[in-house]
Design a protein that fits this description.
By secondary structure, this protein is α+β, with helices and mostly antiparallel strands. The chain has four helices and eight strands. Strands 1, 2, 3, 4, 5, 6, 7 and 8 form an eight-stranded mixed beta sheet that branches.
Length: 175
């Protein structure tokens, strides 16, 4: 049986060990880390999963970021990820359960009558598309580091509210 817990209940060293195992010790050089530099993950929207033996097998974090226009206007977004599952346990549904929990919590945390902030991630469309993520509206967006534009995905009920061009980075008002 899988147990979902708040990520804040996990010892930071255990979180770091899991992320190193899932993505490698050089993970801090990845573009996603540059996008959310200086930000803290959001406790109400970040989770961990324990397996039937209460061992930590996965985590998901959501972060406040922004799409900055050339004019300097920040459009707040939420960055989903990393979605990390311990090697050897991938493919067992832990990632799907954590995504469902995080996106469900996001929908619940939103004020009544107000849609949640748009969500962005860098990942595989084949996997994340089932939750409504798409690269259709991100072609003019840039990231502070190398990335595959086909993997820059957005989930937003009305993407027309966002600029067609901009640079992803930390959300200045959230720090």
């Amino acid at each position: 049986m899988t147990t979902l817990i708040p990520l804040s209940a996990v010892e930071p060293a255990m979180l770091e060990d899991l992320l190193d195992a899932a993505f490698g010790e050089d993970r801090h050089a990845r573009t996603a880390y540059r996008i959310r530099a200086g930000m803290d993950w959001l406790p109400a929207l970040s989770f961990a999963t324990l397996d039937e033996d209460d061992l930590l097998v996965g985590t998901i974090q959501l972060w406040p970021i922004a799409l900055m226009t050339r004019e300097g206007r920040a459009h707040p977004l939420l960055m989903v990820g990393p979605v990390a599952v311990m090697p050897g346990r991938q493919g067992e549904g832990f990632g799907k359960a954590m995504l469902a929990a995080a996106l469900g919590a996001l929908d619940v945390e939103t004020s009544p009558g107000r849609p949640p902030l748009p969500q962005v991630l860098i990942g595989d469309l084949d996997y994340y598309g089932r939750w409504g993520f798409s690269a259709e509206h991100t072609a003019g967006w840039r990231c502070p580091g190398p990335y595959d534009p086909a993997r820059l995905l957005l989930r937003c009920p009305n993407p027309a509210v966002l600029p067609a061009e901009g640079m992803l980075g930390p959300w200045p008002e959230a720090s």
